[in-house]
Model the fold of this input.
Amino acid sequence: MLRKIFSESDGQFNVSFGLQCAGRQGSVCGDFESKSSFSCLSGAALSANATLANTNICNGLIGTGILPGLDSPKTFQRLRSSPSLSSLEVLSSSMQSNLSIVSGSISSQSDSFDWDTNLKSMSAPSRSKGFLNSLEVQMAGGAAGEDRVQAVCSEENGWLFCGIYDGFNGRDAADFLAGTLYENIRLYLNMMDSELKKSNLTGLDDSEGELQYLLEDDSSFYHQEVTQLFKDEEQCDLFEHDILHCLQQALAQAENDFLCMVEREMDDRPDLVSIGSCVLAVLLYREKLYTISLGDSRAILAKSTGCSINDYEDLAAVQLTDCHSVDNDIERIRLLSEHPDDLRTIVGGKVKGKLKLTRAFGVGYLKQKKMNDALMGILQVPNLLSPPYISTQPSLGAHQISEGDHFVIVASDGLFDFLSNEEAVMLVHSYLIDSPTGNPAEFLVEQLIFRAAKISGLSLEDLMSTPAGRRRKYHDDVTVIVVLLGSDYRTSTASTHQ
Done:
């Protein structure tokens, strides 16, 4: 019934994709050995906010030059070689300098961002050695209201990247993240490879092969030399630390570049200073799941408790990410302690009376006085005594996947307005048992709509026929990705489905 209403209404899914992949052998830092890092993933997104796609951010080339080539909202598209957005020269001059000297340092906020250069058209780069480079990757993504979603995977090298960017006050920041963050991460990880080789931390001489080669050769990586290299727990922890450091650097670079762009364009578009986004990115490689987050999107792990209830395995919901909002006591205390002389740090349950989030990408007017000054009248924050009030320090995590880990739900906060972590896990688990070839991400969004209609007193038909913008009264934009780990529920040869 609900699926029929979706298909017949104007509110059908903005994004809906799925991918199954073949199992593969591999192990690193531990006794658990899985056939694949993941067996299947699905994604779905539905808009509630009315928002105009940006038309002039970065001279219009994020929205018109980059994202159309990356987005595939209904199925995965196969791309020859990893996409290289750096060929568009979208990265800042400081980042270009970093790449040329293979340095991991982050540029300062004062670095200039040369948006006057003519951007080149995107072309597939030649294959280069590095952590996330592959002969072929598969990518899906798109927008739903102010949300952006992105999924990139390589069956060749066995990794998966997922990003959900929950924008607010506009979609420019979320679009910028979708156009640059994955590429930033890829570049910083490749820089890490080069640094490891240059510092001779690998313990491998030239006769045994280069670490960069091992990182992209499936017959070697984590099977022979590298497995031995990282057998020691301390070395494994060091490798994990380096990966997380690269994720943090990549996000810091995106933040710096975005705010530099905002500063250049805020005279013509002062609204840019108030536009921001939550960030939730997940990198899955073998049995290690890395997370980086700003804001209140969540990654939830479904983990076996070892018990069975009515012939169903009992799963616990483990939240892998922190919630960065004033509703979190730890975040609220931190924020107040950082601004002891400002008695109006939190007003009406919001930071400076403007935003419930305590950490976010963008939203420059709560970080820099000059950006606050660009706003006029009541839009301006009075008494901005000690900025920044919104932190860009992300939460980082690394989870060692075990045999009892079943799936991960990655979602914007719109889902959790209606479902608890435990309810979301229970619904996905039951759905996969009853519909092993279906799309669990779509199912979660449908359950949200069902609850939103019930709470609002509307019929499903009336809610789904309510146009975006007006529908925000009943629910937020919602984006969900469900990743099935290992081969717990279903495996097949590689295929895509809508």
